[in-house]
């Protein structure tokens, strides 16, 4: 559980449990051939998929619909040099099924500033990785989550 | 300053001032053709470049040296639906000049867990963008930082 680099690898369920406890993560995608990243509020669906709610026709929707994206959440205590980081990687898609849209309107994330026409974006949790670092000795170089090789 | 979407766009100097006040950001890059993101502690250089310190030969170094990356920092108050997000986009490179390495060993970031051989990675601040959102009405859909189009 505690390899030499000081990290503890987190299992899928532990990753999802930690993610579920924070309101905001960051979606990572490609925009005009450049890496892009945006903080967004989110909820996890029962199967671990990341659910976002945003304006239909937004730049975010155009950039991520149909693309493989990463979604990261973390909680780091800089004073103690401890914390965790979880990344969900998978295909993102706008929810088009009307019944599913209705379900998410009841149970999905709530926009912090609702707009007239909103869509839900679902990021499938195909790959869920995470690491925990514990006080001081646990960071690998500058990075909280990189594996050496 | 406050367009209809509720955001206040931040100028370059304001972005860098905000970034300088947080210890940890997230580097966004491509790894095995997939979007990847890692929290890292960092410092800003005088010209706004993002400085990281990590183990030589790490996976992070291999992935970002010579590539264009994004580096994001934010501070979000989920209860008040307010906060800011800044993204620096530019080419990343390992610092190879010995004099520059010595300078950064004195003034650059300190590893939270030093390793035997470390390098500095510099992300040039070619593009610096940021937005501030202020209490409730300021979020654009789910996203703190996406521009509509």
From TrEMBL, chains A, B:
Stored Pfam families: Pyridox_ox_2
Domain of life: Bacteria
UniProt xrefs under InterPro entries: Pyridox_Oxase-rel, Split_barrel_FMN-bd
Name of the featured protein: Pyridoxamine 5'-phosphate oxidase
Species assigned in the record: Streptomyces caelestis
């Amino acid at each position: 559980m505690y390899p030499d680099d000081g990290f503890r690898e987190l299992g899928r369920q532990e990753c999802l449990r930690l993610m579920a406890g924070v309101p905001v993560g960051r979606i990572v995608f490609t925009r005009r051939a450049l890496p892009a990243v945006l903080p967004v509020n989110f909820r996890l669906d029962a199967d671990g998929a990341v659910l976002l709610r945003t304006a239909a026709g937004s730049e975010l929707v155009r950039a991520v619909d149909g693309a493989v994206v990463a979604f990261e959440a973390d909680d780091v205590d800089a004073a103690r040099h401890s914390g965790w980081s979880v990344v969900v990687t998978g295909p993102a898609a706008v929810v088009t099924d009307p019944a599913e849209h209705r379900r998410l309107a009841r149970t999905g994330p709530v926009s912090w500033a609702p707009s007239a026409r909103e869509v839900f974006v679902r990021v499938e949790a195909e790959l869920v990785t995470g690491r925990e670092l514990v006080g001081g000795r646990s960071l690998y170089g500058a990075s909280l989550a990189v594996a050496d090789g």
